[in-house]
Design brief:
Shape: elongated
Largest sheet: 4 strands, mixed
Number of strands: 4
Radius of gyration: 32 Å
Strand order of the largest sheet: 1-3-2-4
Strand content: under 5%
Oligomer: single chain
Distance between the termini: 84 Å
Helix content: 40-55%
Length: 417
């Protein structure tokens, strides 16, 4: 019997066994103390004389409504609609607090992070009530907080703060256009650095663990590319593309580069990534889980298309622009045709390990051989004798053909073959 006079359960009874199991696993304890975290006031932007309370994730902000409605932002319309709704509600309940007037009934912003909204308030208050010009100057230097700037661009784009968004994009371009600024940037999140993945991550959506402490990670290359494409910022996108090209050239993150290239139609990145993956062979394509079936089909199509191109290339010299002193364009064109074929064949002899389908590698090597012949670094074996006044034109024609193939590389990896 227990102290209340009820019969006690034996220790080995099913109910006692289940209860002890739950206690040992901490399940009952977890159920008793778990629950939603209470919102906390932001230590910087919960301003006592503010007149609008907003809840972003788990953080309360109290700010001046006049600040949020600057730059003809979406907040101006939002507050107008909120005011009309509260006016209707006040007719039926005079005692109810209007939305945004207190902590218990804040204006809730969905889809934003506290860090993003904090970045917006930093910019708005730095530009208006509490001007801090040194902070704005710092944002245009090498010591800029690029995470804060990325957060600022995302939220100003969403709420249509056009002038602030353009300023933040300029600051980001200034930061990332510095020599070496992108050398250490992660391609994806810190959890999977330097790895290929078919899933394109988005910007961090986590709340800070403690008030005032930001848990945001530094921007990744994927996020920077996404942001530049979203805002149609060509200069910033070119910085990102340059970095993707370098990664592909180093043989890193090929499947991810391919996915990003296709997602944002970055054809130079697509072409180089497809070409690099193609050279690794079908066994690698099959083992790379990040590749889709369609991408594997396009890799196979590119293999056949480039092999066919290489077979035809020696007999198809690029157009030659003859010099003003050229006395016989017909003879010169014939000599260039023989030179073109010889240069392509010489390249494959110099590096016999080049794959047949590696047209880009072969044409780049051919350009180097042509340059060495024209500049007399290696003997031309008489091929240049028939075009004494068009030597430089021959090099220009070869370079242009190489660029044409490189820029149109993505076209060879088509679904139709």
């Amino acid at each position: 019997m227990d102290q209340d006079g009820h019969p006690a359960l034996p220790p080995d009874s099913p109910l006692m066994t289940m209860t002890n199991s739950f206690l040992n696993d901490g399940m009952l304890l977890g159920l008793s103390i778990s629950g939603p975290r209470l919102p906390y006031r932001d230590p910087t932007y919960y301003i006592n004389d503010g007149n609008s309370v907003l809840l972003v994730e788990n953080t309360l902000f109290k700010v001046h409504r006049s600040v949020l409605t600057k730059d003809k932002s979406a907040f101006e319309t939002m507050f107008q609609l909120s005011g009309e709704t509260d006016s209707v509600r006040s007719d039926s309940s005079m005692s109810a607090a209007q939305e945004g007037e207190c902590d218990e009934n804040p204006i809730r912003l969905h889809g934003d992070t506290a860090d993003e909204f904090r970045a917006l308030l930093w910019a708005l208050y730095a530009l208006t009530h509490h001007a801090r010009p040194h902070e704005l100057t710092l944002a245009m230097s090498s010591e800029a907080d690029c995470t804060q700037l990325v957060n600022l661009v995302r939220i100003t784009h969403k709420y249509q703060f056009r002038s602030i968004m353009n300023w933040a994009l300029s600051a980001l371009h200034h930061y990332y256009s510095r020599p070496g600024a992108l050398d250490d940037i992660l391609t994806t999140t810190a959890a999977t650095p330097g790895t290929t993945t078919g899933t394109v991550p988005t910007l961090p959506q986590t709340a800070p663990p403690t008030p005032g402490l930001s848990a945001s990670l530094p921007p990744t290359l994927v996020q920077l590319t996404e942001l530049a494409a979203l805002c149609e910022r060509t200069d910033l996108l070119e910085c990102a593309v340059t970095r993707w090209k370098r990664l592909v050239g180093e043989g890193r993150d090929l499947a991810l580069a391919l996915t990003i290239g296709e997602r944002f139609n970055l054809r130079p990145v697509m072409g180089l990534a497809y070409h690099a993956l193609m050279l690794r062979g079908k066994a690698h394509w099959d083992a790379e889980r990040a590749l889709t079936r369609s991408q594997r089909v396009r890799l196979l199509a590119g293999y056949y298309a480039l092999t066919k191109l290489w077979d035809a290339l020696p007999s198809q010299p690029p157009p030659l622009t003859h010099g003003a002193r050229c006395t016989s364009q017909q003879r010169c064109a014939k000599a260039f045709g023989a030179l073109w074929r010889a240069v392509l064949e010489t390249g494959t002899q110099v590096l016999p390990g080049l794959a047949r389908e590696d047209v880009l590698g072969k044409i780049m090597l051919a350009e180097s051989v042509m340059k060495a012949m024209v500049e007399r670094e290696i003997p031309s074996q008489g091929f240049l004798d028939g075009m004494p006044h068009c030597r430089e034109s021959a090099l220009v024609a070869t370079t242009m053909r190489m660029r044409e193939i490189k820029e149109s590389l993505a076209d060879y990896f088509s679904d139709e073959f």
